[in-house]
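Researcher: Quick sanity check before group meeting.
Model: Go ahead. Protein one:
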Amino acid sequence: MDHATERVFRQMLGLFVAKDMDGMADLWAPDGTAAFPFAEAGAPTLLEGREAVRDYLVRYPDVYDTTGVSVARVHRTEDPETIIVELSSEGRAVRTGAAYRMDYVQVVTVQDGMIAEIRDYWSPVQVARAGGALEELRKGLEA
């Protein structure tokens, strides 16, 4: 079985920890997508196209100083271009200086060596807590 999808995914993680958001976005196909099915309170649920992904990623290091990512499990699927990954990131929230750890499940599809789709399942509460934005999340949920 070809593990090209996992190689591209791990390359993406390395760029993420290195805070190379442009390099990370460059891994997306021009029409690739990033979906966030659990997003709440005004956070985007779908990014369509490489440039939308780039615009989203450019702000990330201003919110989270990610110092490490650990992959707990990679699940292969019947489709050799798609994997399901359980992972965690850790670092500190730039706004508060507090340490954080966030858990994710991502479904990743790579076609022709580029990310065609990532569906990123994360907890809005965990993200808001890590970023010192629980009150903003609460207000967004009430709106």
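Researcher: Fine. The other one?
Model: Protein two, sequence then structure:
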Amino acid sequence: MIETLNVPPSVGLTDEQFYQLCIANEPWKLELTEEGELIIMSPTGGESGVRNSDINFQVCLWNRQTKLGKVFDSSTEFKLPTGAYRCPDAAWVKLARWEALTPDQRKRFPPICPDFIIELRSETDSLDKLRKKMRDYQKNGLILGWLIDPQTPLVEIYRLGQEVEILNFSIDNPPQLSGEDILPGFILDLTPILVV
């Protein structure tokens, strides 16, 4: 379940106020768009949890071998340059960019747009809202992002400064997604994500 509340500009949540709001409402995952929409998301269900775990496992395994950056799970909130706060299902940041943050910035909601993200559509997610979220990441400097929709099934590939590439596929023959130059040598196997 996802609910959206409008936060009037006159209220103007500060970074600290938004952080405290998230802490005070820990069972919920909160996001804030640059337009002032407060998005309230409930915890994920079992199938989405299994899929998210597999995605993070694959990205973590690749990163453990390459040591090129840091991997984040779906509970990590990023403060984007536009002021939006977003939680991708999986995220990766280049090591040099992560190390450029102060220790305090790393402890809270890192003020950085990930270099790579994955959004996985669950049964309660609106595809249009996820597409807007992906465009927001792209606008904030995302280099590569994948929106995976097991229901359709399709994958949308978002690249910095490029049009979205859409891959329709069958569950019996899913594509393998390449990390391209951003995550060299990384291939995401969609089979365990689609067959839960």
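Researcher: One line on it for the slide.
Model: Helices lie at 15-24, 46-66, 95-99, 103-107, 127-139, 191-194.
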